């Protein structure tokens, strides 16, 4: 066998190995991309289901229920080619299609959930942050038109305000019933401050007036009573101080 033939065989062998390595690399990348897509779609589906089931009834509307169903359907249909044998997924898709066909007559079964303490307020706020991330990601992924996404981001902001209004009001009223006007004054004062800081405070004038009236009442009760005891520096005080909207503002909800 001549040196030329040997050289050609060696070169051919090296080229074959390179082709095999490239094919394996391409196959591996394809598997990784499919795994990434699958994980992303499953996460979107989970978020939609979680929000649709857990958002308090006072925040859930037929329009929002319909939006979550549409986003879940889009993610589910994209997932189906990756999980062709998933019978549960196919059933879910048909159920979602039936729900969406109802339009704004879609059934909303979410029960109201009183925002009566700091833990509950933070839990609902976390759900709204998830909804914000879901809408933003759907716009970026082309699943939701930009103008519709902007509309929902504004709605989410308003829902957050409603959560704070209910939280401060409920805590203030509870403090009055427990004859703790100092704590009530703190709650109503935080409500007033929060509403005055809103970008569009005019739409909350009724709630602001109510807080101001309640604050004046609590102030009068404090003046009529002896100085508040040390016990009034309680977990409520710390909770009200901690539950601000600075972190939320950092999310640039109007971007």
What does this protein structure show overall?
The chain has 255 residues and is an all-alpha fold. It is 74% helix and 0% strand. The chain contains nine helices and no strands.
| Form type | elongated
Instruction: Give the proportion of residues in helices.
Output: over 70%
Broad structural category: mainly alpha
Q: What is the oligomeric state here?
A: single chain
Largest sheet: none
Strand content of the residues, in percent? Answer: under 5%
Quick summary:
By secondary structure, the chain is mainly α. Helix content is 74%, strand content 0%.
List the helices and strands and how they pair.
Layout: H1 3-54, H2 62-79, H3 87-101, H4 118-140, H5 146-177, H6 181-196, H7 205-224, H8 235-242, H9 246-249
Task: Provide tags for this entry.
255 residues; 74% helix
């Amino acid at each position: 066998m001549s040196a030329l033939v040997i050289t050609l065989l060696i070169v051919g062998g090296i080229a074959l190995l390179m082709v095999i390595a490239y094919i394996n690399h391409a196959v591996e990348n394809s598997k990784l991309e499919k795994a990434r897509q699958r994980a992303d779609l499953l996460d979107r589906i989970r978020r939609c289901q979680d929000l649709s089931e857990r958002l308090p009834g006072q925040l859930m509307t037929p329009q929002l229920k319909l939006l979550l169903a549409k986003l879940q359907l889009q993610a589910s249909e994209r997932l189906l080619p990756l999980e062709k044998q998933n019978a549960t997924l196919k059933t879910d898709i048909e159920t979602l299609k039936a729900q969406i066909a109802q339009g704004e007559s879609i059934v909303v079964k979410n029960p109201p959930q009183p925002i009566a303490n700091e833990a509950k307020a933070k839990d609902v706020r976390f759900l709204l942050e998830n909804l914000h991330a879901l809408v933003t990601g759907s716009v970026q992924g082309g699943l939701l038109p930009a103008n519709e996404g902007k509309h929902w981001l504004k709605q989410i902001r308003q829902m957050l305000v409603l959560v704070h209004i209910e939280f401060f009001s409920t805590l203030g009223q509870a403090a009055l019933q427990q004859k703790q006007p100092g704590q009530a004054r703190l709650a109503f004062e935080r409500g007033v401050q929060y509403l005055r800081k809103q970008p569009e405070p005019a739409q909350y004038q009724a709630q602001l007036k109510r807080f101001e009236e309640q604050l004046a009442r609590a102030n009068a009760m404090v003046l009529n009573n002896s100085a508040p005891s040390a016990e009034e520096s309680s977990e409520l005080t710390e909770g009200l101080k901690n539950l601000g909207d600075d972190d939320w503002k950092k999310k640039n909800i109007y971007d």
